[in-house]
Design goal:
two-stranded antiparallel ribbon, single chain, seven-stranded mixed sheet, 13% strand, Nucleotidyltransferase, domain 5, alpha/beta
Length: 349
Amino acid sequence: MSTLLLNLDFGEPPPKKALEGNAKHQKFVRKRRFLERRGFLNKKKQPPNNVPKLHSEPAKKGVTPQVDGAWKISPPPKKKKTADSSSGSERSLDKKASVPWLTPAPSQKTGSVVAKVDLLEEFQSSLPEIKSPPTRPQKKNPQKNPIQKSTPHNSTLARSENKCSGASQKTPRKMVAIDCEMVGTGPKGHVSSLARCSIVNYNGDVLYDEYILPPCHIVDYRTRWSGIRKQHMVNATPFKIARGQILKILTGKIVVGHAIHNDFKALQYFHPKSLTRDTSHIPLLNRKADCPENVTMSLKHLTKKLLNRDIQAGKSGHSSVEDAQATMELYKLVEVEWEQYLAQNSPKD
């Protein structure tokens, strides 16, 4: 039998350089895969291989075949947050609202308008708080304090009335009338010393009425005119103390009196002429009483003529309170006209 010779050519073995290059490529691929998993490199898009592999097993979940034929387990893929998943989670969290730590945090993605509103709120919150004054509780008594809604016209009328009333009230508060009674001291009692002083306000109310003990010995009480007697000086106020009390009342006020220079002389005091009104030197009073304007008329005569009242009657003496009240009433008769005249011809102090 003849022998059969088979000539089988299996091909030449690959050169060593090709093998070495294949190993380097595999090492490069492993490093690249490692860096891709770490997130340092983006995955390379390779064209899909349509050639099916023979005797290939189906790929397992989480297992990726490598070039060198080894199977390696890849880390689980990160879950991507989508709108559907977030809406589903919100629905599930709404059901679990009773658990506080499961409630989702508010979303920070807002529009431009909402962002501006947030900035305004932050700015306003940073401003210091202004504390409003505490409101006083109103007394619930409709009878004593009724609340009346006034119209603008009525409010203007009320303001004008208040201004007029305020202007009229300024003068009475700052105007007083004074009258003093004197006794005789010094040689033969020819020196007039203060023994009583009375001050009344614009309405005639008594502000001050005291008996005053002169610093010198009293020689003549002049009871017929002054009404002062010895018993009045027992508890009388000393002159220095009384003078200080009187000046506190007169300072800064318009002082009305009849022949008032005699009263100031007894007080050892000088009052500004611009604030002094002497009814014995007001020509308007004399004209109203049908008397010569250049003549000094007595307080008793003017009171009888203009007020139809008798004062300083009898032998018991004068009353300084009565005289001060009569002086103020006389001045009120010519107050408006005389004040206008003084405003145009202001007296020099």
